[in-house]
């Protein structure tokens, strides 16, 4: 496969930046249902296929989408494994904050019991 079509491992900063755009989030949601070409992805939007292709390129460069050649077609596929890495990072942050809030609650409870 040509190097330009191979998606790199996700970089958290670029992946989250890419997902900051509502069109790209919608594309990820659509690709979660199955592969689609740029033309198919463009159908529900009031955007040109070229604009959708740009958004797909951003998602591809950050590692969340890959494209392959099937004759004259170039279907896009969501890299769910890479998307899961973002979910893992979010879950780790959630656990860390839950632990901090539990420790704060315990501290406040202990402090109140001492008085």
UniProtKB/TrEMBL annotation:
InterPro entries: ArsR-like_HTH, HTH_ArsR_DNA-bd_dom, HTH_MetalResp_TranReg, WH-like_DNA-bd_sf, WH_DNA-bd_sf. Gene3D superfamilies: Winged helix-like DNA-binding domain superfamily/Winged helix DNA-binding domain (1.10.10.10). Keywords: DNA-binding, Transcription, Transcription regulation. This is Transcriptional regulator. NCBIfam families: HTH_metalloreg (NF033788). CDD domains: HTH_ARSR (cd00090). One of its GO terms (molecular function) is DNA binding. It holds the Pfam family HTH_20. PANTHER family: TRANSCRIPTIONAL REGULATOR, ARSR FAMILY, TRANSCRIPTIONAL REPRESSOR SDPR. Residues 5-98 form the HTH arsR-type domain.
